[in-house]
Amino acid sequence: MTVQVAVDTQFMREVNSSTILLQLRDAENMSVSALASAVGLSRQAVSRSLSDLEANGLIEFSEPDRQSSRTGRPPQLVRFRAEAGYVLGIYVNPNEIRIAISDLLGAIIHSGIVELTTEPSDTSAIDVLVKCIETALQSAKLRREDIWFASIGAPGIVDPAAGMIRLIPSMPGLAGDVIVRNLKATLNCPIYLDNDIKLATEGERWREASRADESLVFVHWGERIGAGIVLEGKLLRGASNDAGDIGFLDLLGTSSTMRRDDPNTSNTLRLGPFEEWVGVDALIRLALDAAHAASDEQLAKDLKDTSSNPLDAMINAVLTGNPVGMTVIEEAARRFAMAVAVIRVVLDPELVIIGGPVARCGDVLLEAINSQLSLQPLGQPSLAISSFGDDAVVRGAIRHSLTELERFKFQRERVVIER
Q1: Which CATH fold topology does 85-202+394-406 show?
Q2: Domain 2-80 adopts which CATH fold?
Q3: Rounded distance, CA 57 to CA 79, Å?
Q4: What are 269-327's pLDDT values in tens digits?
Q5: pLDDT tens across 32-65, in order?
Q6: Yes or no: domain 209-386 corresponds to CATH 3.30.420.40
Q7: Model pTM greater than 0.70?
Q8: What digits encode the pLDDT tens for the residues 247-266?
Q9: Which band of pLDDT confidence, cut at 50, 70 and 90, is reported for residue 415?
């Protein structure tokens, strides 16, 4: 029989405290008696642990519950202090830096977006990142000591254990340990670095608890295309930590030369074959060709306007039912469905979640992809649009930070003895 016991009195109190703290995090407030009943400890043991937690600033006693229907003295209530500390979630990509601060229950108290105007390879992005953090702390009226954990998502192949980016073609200046090394002088807490898509996948699973144990694939569809894979509730990283890099699928066998053979274009971001065929740049080219064919010169002009975002013009054409938009979305769905069919054959997930800029096409996109998938011989997974949209990576970073705090600050590992 396997039982859990504490090896000494101090350790037992720490184990009890962690159990009580986790119970309080799931409730707005509780009386001491109700708490003792919930965790299966005596009132005296709970009181001792609450004294320790109060001394550490993690809980507080509130006024007695005057609304209680019980006779006699109203019970005193205890609550978890979500404001005792804060966590940071950050997303760095070639276009912008997104940042959010949450309390210990995941409530966002500050968020911000700063566009990057420098070249993707320019390491001055680090200077912008540091400034973003300083501004966020000032706006939230926090000190750096108030941040207990920070998680950062970035594109490329990341080694979380080493805190290094092994390969980042879109922002080569951030390769290595540049991000973590520079932020150690700004933050006084553990710093976690991971691939953006993998953190976004954590964010999507957090959004709905029902997705926590599902087998699902989250696909970020933008200029670059990548996937986060969850099998039986566990994030699949692969031997090289780049499982799900579907942008490098070569479904046609010739697509890898589509742009490289064109002397008028250059693959400066080292896009994979699938990204060259289905990514944002490819969709805008499709839209421009369709606009010219339909003599829609205004849309063609908007798609070529470098002072704005051509993708906005394309998505607007889709959402307004413009024939050019419908033509593009049908072709985009046909191409994308081929990758979903591959994912289905290899992984057979219950759900595929689509996020990233192209996901803004919403239900129109889902209907077009489902129509294409209906032609496949095997049953296909359900499709959904990302719950968090462009904030999925930041929310996933927040979720990871809170999970790590729960593991290392709010929980003590039990001593397990085999008998």
Answers
A1: Nucleotidyltransferase; domain 5 (3.30.420)
A2: Arc Repressor Mutant, subunit A (1.10.10)
A3: 11
A4: 578 899 999 999 999 999 999 999 999 999 999 999 877 889 999 999 999 999 999 99
A5: 888 888 888 888 888 888 888 888 888 888 776 5
A6: yes
A7: yes
A8: 989 888 764 444 444 444 44
A9: very low
